[in-house]
Design brief:
With about 350 residues, the protein is α+β, with helices and mostly antiparallel strands. The protein contains eight helices and 23 strands. The strands form six sheets. Strands 1, 2, 10, 11, 12, 13, 21 and 22 form an eight-stranded mixed beta sheet that branches. The chain has a five-stranded antiparallel beta sheet with strand order 16-17-18-15-19, with no helix packed on it. It has a three-stranded antiparallel beta sheet with strand order 3-9-4. A hairpin with a 2-residue loop joins strand 5 and strand 6. Helix 1 packs parallel to helix 4. The protein binds flavin-adenine dinucleotide.
Amino acid sequence: MVKDNEFDVIIAGGGVAGAATAIRCRQSGLRCLMITGNLNPLDVLFQTTPSESVHPGAETLLNALGAFNLLAASCRGRYDGIATGNSVNFLGSDAHGKWQGYHLDKPLFVKGLIAAALLSGTETLSNEKITSLALGNGGRMVVKVSAGITYQARYLIDASGHSQIAGKILNLKKSFYSPVLYCWTGLTSGISDDVFSQLHTSFDMTRHGWQWLAPEDHQYCTWTTVSTLRNAHRPISPVAGNSFQSVHRNMRWRLYDKLAYEGIILCGDAAGILDPASGQGLLMALMSGIQAAECVKLAFYSGRQTASIAKDYTDWFKGFYLKKMELLRSYYVHNGIFDD
Ligand SMILES: Cc1cc2nc3c(=O)[nH]c(=O)nc-3n(C[C@H](O)[C@H](O)[C@H](O)COP(=O)(O)OP(=O)(O)OC[C@H]3O[C@@H](n4cnc5c(N)ncnc54)[C@H](O)[C@@H]3O)c2cc1C
């Protein structure tokens, strides 16, 4: 229940980045409003949508947000390495044993983070879309939602994912770093014992892209393909057929040239995307959400110039993104997916 229309921070989007931002802002004592679209798509049965995979290092970030055990609670399968051809790249190990990644039930994972945001005292408006935003008198961001109501805050954090609400409304400059990449993902059930026993979490190049397989509990397998060709979306055997959930996205690599302004910070997919081969979409959503909230905290409590806070954030995000992007690009060039 929203008490009045004045906040320290307004967060656009209640996905991974938005919830992480909200929790961290609340940990700093800031009053924040998270505005998000329809949450009904999250109300689905367990293991009825394709999984997304995350490195176990995400646990440290989630613990810092108070979302303890969320990886285990939304887990549909574990993996200790990624097979490519005949070799396996293991994630690593320590005194406690092998590191194991998580194949996550994404709706359950996001719902868990939203619950943690609510518990932290975040005020929330769901089933609403931000329709306009502008810098108002007194340097406060003025945000209007689809119901026609306006809210104000010193900061707007854009965590609206593909919608890129701030980027689009304010026509911010962005750059593309890849051709259009067609991404498909699906969930296959009813895999026979003998086929399932041969499956490994794997990443393999195809003629125009790659295919990821994530075998899960109950003999299910999530498959994800990325291709420069529009129609090359079917998974290659052994999991072709029986995919009861299949979705498509354009995953062309893009990044806004500047990621923080006076009163506005972009984070998660709203700031920049690489295709899922980068393996860091969820991690980056968590990290950049936390970092964005840290910037707001500095602006409120440290007396530092907002321009220098904004520059540090842009440098941090871009440094991380561009390093990963260069690695991915040279891999794609090496495998003939991109021209040199
Ligand atoms: C097919 C596929 C497979 C993937 N696999 C993996 C994987 O295995 N591992 C991995 O780490 N990453 C993976 N990713 C990437 C990962 O899903 C994203 O990077 C991550 O979910 C981004 O989170 P986010 O919070 O930035 O955006 P989102 O999760 O997109 O959240 C955006 C939120 O903003 C809300 N919103 C949108 N517009 C408005 C508006 N106008 N007003 C208010 N709210 C709005 C939406 O309702 C939503 O809640 C995959 C992506 C795809 C497409």
